[in-house]
TrEMBL record, chains A, B:
The keyword Cell membrane does not apply. One of its GO terms (molecular function) is hydrolase activity. Residues 4-275 form the CN hydrolase domain. The keyword Transcription does not apply. CDD domains: DCase. Gene3D superfamilies: Carbon-nitrogen hydrolase. Keywords: Hydrolase. The lineage of its organism: Bacteria, Pseudomonadati, Pseudomonadota, Alphaproteobacteria, Hyphomicrobiales. It comes from the Bacteria. This is N-carbamoyl-D-amino-acid hydrolase.
Length: 308, 308
């Protein structure tokens, strides 16, 4: 057995007026609780340091730059890195990244037990839209504020296992898990902020949104025989509700832990990385069963083209 | 609305000693029941005409040729084609195909309302093994008796919609649905024979097998915003149990009908093909959101290669 005790650190809402200092204090409290429960790794949500700002339309995009981090770590988050190193706990969280040359990404990082950043991922599947859309019940302007990630779906060796990351909407796309599965991924860490109502279909509420969250994570785990840790920022941010439902899913696609609240809530579960081996060696032995000669459209065609 | 009334015609077991005549009579009874319930399309299982013969090891592969059909239709199945045409019902079923030039495939066909074959699919993801394996609780010799399909994952216009097919183990692979999704598929028809116990993991029984069946079909439907019709051959064939659990899944990934028995059982559900549009135009608008530049490994690499 290669056991990793994983803490999924769901956070409740972060209001627009709240600063990073408030958030980081809450994250530290979750980290201390995780340490008390013996966690080796703590996973926080997407855009963990701020409110989910892509719901706010700013005509001048640069007006959003205050939500972005220009370096990582920086002064605001240094207490997280120091505490994690002291606890000898690896850590992953998401944040808005502004690069020195002016690029904007929806990013997540992964550290080792010493607080060194060993992995960086930039969200590839940006949902939503780039311009103000009066048809929607609320705005979801990720395509306005971020560029699609440019780092692919890498994996890293950490804590004795092979880990990958994805962010929010990435989890709905089987390509996300498969590209990592083809690199032998054993655990995928995913943060998300998911509005409780579909902005384009008002009768699609939180129950269905939670169902799709579970379905996507469970299928990705099963079909690649890996652990999936999916962590929400949840609750009501300035009148805009987000689902909770953070999950730990085993390599059989079964949910082994699920958050019950829409607030700061810690799930801790012992994850045996060796439990990924059976699926990878049998039904999802890719080398034995995949037939890439018939998958060509997946990479050669972006949009759907119906037959004549 | 573009309504198709779909009949998922699960069949119970077919014993090794039973002839095609016995099976076809049962299939005709299900077809008549489907007609009485107003079905436009009836979907039968994988290898619908015989017992699931890949469980039987034959040293000389040619000894299995008696399970194969050398032409389609042939005398044994002509009553099905004639009755379907009389009922103006489209039809799909699976069978073992032996081509004039000696190739063996695990095949499914699709007809129009007049009994004309409009589509043929040959199973691509063959599970199991090619040689007798004393380690298994039972044999699963699909890699012995069949070649991988050579027709890709085509789709066809039929009954006013866009339809595709897959066979059994194909349904566990997201590539299957995605290649069809990229052709705008609105309904995927899948037959299966799934042993109730994992041959390599005796403690994996029918509950987990049914769970994986549901998970795979639901994820494929949701992630491509299409209907999935998954139809079992079920029950105890000569001492070897197969799961039932035939399903009709809507484009939101929700199960709208599920078989309760392991016997001949008909599920009939009205499927609105226009219900596929919302997902295809929003969250799974492939043209807007897919990033093929990061999917390269899916087609360039067959087996998993862990990082150094």
């Amino acid at each position: 057995m290669r056991m990793i005790n994983v803490a999924a650190a769901q956070t409740g809402p972060i209001q627009r007026a709240e600063g990073r200092d408030v958030v980081v204090r809450r994250m530290l409290a979750l980290m201390d609780e995780a340490k008390a429960k013996g966690a080796d790794l703590i996973v926080y949500p997407e855009l963990a340091l701020t409110t989910f700002f892509p719901r706010w339309y700013m005509e001048n995009r640069a007006d959003a730059d205050g939500w972005f981090e220009r370096e990582m770590p920086n002064d605001a988050v240094r207490p997280l890195f120091e505490r994690a190193a002291r606890h000898e706990m690896a850590m992953s969280f998401g944040y808005a990244e502004l690069t020195p040359d002016g690029h904007h990404f929806n990013t997540a990082i992964l550290t080792d037990r010493s607080g060194n950043i060993v992995g960086k991922y930039r969200k590839i599947h940006l949902p939503g839209h780039a311009e103000f859309d009066p048809e929607r019940t609320h705005q979801h302007l990720e395509k306005r504020y971020f560029e699609p990630g440019d780092l692919g779906f890498p994996v890293w060796r950490n804590l004795g296992g092979i880990m990958g990351m994805a962010v929010c909407n990435d989890r709905r796309w089987p390509e996300t898990y498969r590209v990592m599965g083809l690199q032998g991924v054993e655990m995928v860490l995913i943060g998300y902020n998911t509005p409780s109502v579909n902005a384009q279909k008002a009768d699609e509420g939180p129950e269905k949104r939670l169902f799709h969250n579970r379905l996507s994570a469970q299928a990705g785990a099963y079909q690649n025989s890996c652990w999936v840790i999916a962590v929400a920022k949840a609750g009501n941010e300035d009148g805009h509700p987000l689902i909770g439902g953070s999950l730990i899913v085993n390599p059989d696609g079964e949910i082994v832990a699920e958050a019950k609240t829409e607030d700061d809530e810690l799930l801790v579960h012992p994850c045996d990385l060796d439990a990924t081996a059976f699926g990878k060696q049998t039904i999802f032995n890719f080398a034995a069963h995949r037939r890439t000669e018939h998958y060509g459209l997946i990479t050669s065609r972006t949009g759907a083209i119906p037959p004549p």
